[in-house]
Here is the input.
Amino acid sequence: MKTTDLYLLGVGGLATLSLVGCTDRKPTARPMNILYIMTDDHTAQMMSCYDRRYASTPNLDRIAAEGVRFTNSFVANSLSGPSRACMLTGKHSHKNGFYDNTTCVFDGSQQTFPKLLREAGYETAIVGKWHLESLPTGFDHWEIVPGQGDYYNPDFIVQTGDTVRNEGYITNLITDKSLHWLQEERDPEKPFCLLVHHKAQHRNWMADTCNLALYEDRTFPVPETFYDDYAGRPAAAGQEMSIASDHDMDPVYDLKMYREGKPGRLKELFEGMVGRMNPEQRAAWDRFYDPIIEEFYARNPQGRERAEWKFTRYVRDYLKTLKSLDDNVGRLLDYLDESGLAENTLVVYTSDQGFYIGEHGWFDKRFMYEESFHTPLVMRLPGGAHGDIDQMVQNIDYAPTFLELAGAEIPADIQGRSLLPLLRGEQPADWRRSLYYHYYEYPAEHMVKRHYGVRDDRWKLIHFYNDIDHWELYDLENDPRELHNRYDDPSCAEERARMTEELIRLQKQYDDTLALRMNGNLELKN
Here is the structure.
């Protein structure tokens, strides 16, 4: 069906087919624009419409207040590149071919929602972090940072193939470029889909100079699980993402305690980052950090004091990068309001995955445990629903949502499900009852074992495999912090069997043949 054979009727820009061949029929409204804003490693604990312990995010909260907040939003693989591939394709990692950040290159010839939107008459663009190794395809305009990008004076790869250094702070620059495309470069006669992909709040949390001194008067209680002993959870015990460990959270690279002659596992990498600064930026940086560095090495805290000092510095730095992000989201929202585009634009804000803010003593993500499996998701659809949406959703659902909104056909091989009925306020009786997850990057940075699992509204079953064969079962109602593995508890045998059956059902539904082989003699155990 051609774009000219589509028109939109009613509240929310819902697509309806016109009669083929009736050329005198005119659209009653133009197709809905899509503004998709995604950050890196932003966890729901650090978004004030979800959790008020740490952050104030008024502009992000504004999207939720004017639209909906998803309370059960999850990813399919809690790692940057794989998560982005799931989002673009609407498929799990084993189907889109991008499993991990160390061995994979995204196959840009495959079907993605931006390509399908272009076929439906949309103009598509992406600005910011890409992190899929190959160059973008399916976009009319793109400008991306190499790899993770740099906070200060970052390089951008442009469509000519050139790499150009830009002066400034990355969060501001990505927003500047996005606004420039919206204001000056796009075709105003076409609906648009713009993906704004920020580096923030990715490690190592380098704040803009104007925000360096923020939150220095704040301290934060460590999470209840900060000193977790990982009893009954050998995979959790074997990770390398501990805040307390200087090997895992490097005081120099992560916390900026740089001094000549002092050791740091990632010291050279940090030197390269601050080496990008211009003299004015570096002077502001040194004025702020020099006294903190002096105090740190003079005190030389050890043990629990050192761990909690590192936690405090980590949270402060995270919040500072988040402040820039929230301010820049406000710039985008203000432009939509001032230009009149807000009346016909779906606004989406999410992160590529969740993150640990000291829970279990950790930073980073990867595990299927709640803090990294769960991700913030808010959407504002003009004329759509308001309030909380409690159904379980996943990042493979974004592609079919955008396609249905555009009136484009959703290919049968897309594994996600459109969220548009939920955005209209509907309550589909056949909505999914569980979610599937599969993580592959091991051995690699942070040494999180390969694993897959299933989660429903109360229980979670996880299998760690490869150089380990270990199962975990959690009662999320009575053990929301996932401290007590109930897999071998006889009183949970019925739930273990039920969740095992659900796991196999989803593996078959999504055709994850590797995982089915890894189950081994699972059925015999139940």
Remarks:
- Residues 435-525 form a domain with the Arylsulfatase, C-terminal domain fold (CATH 3.30.1120.10).
- DSSP finds 15 helices and 18 strands in the chain.
- Residues 1-28 have pLDDT under 50 and may be disordered.
- The first helix runs from residue 58 to 66.
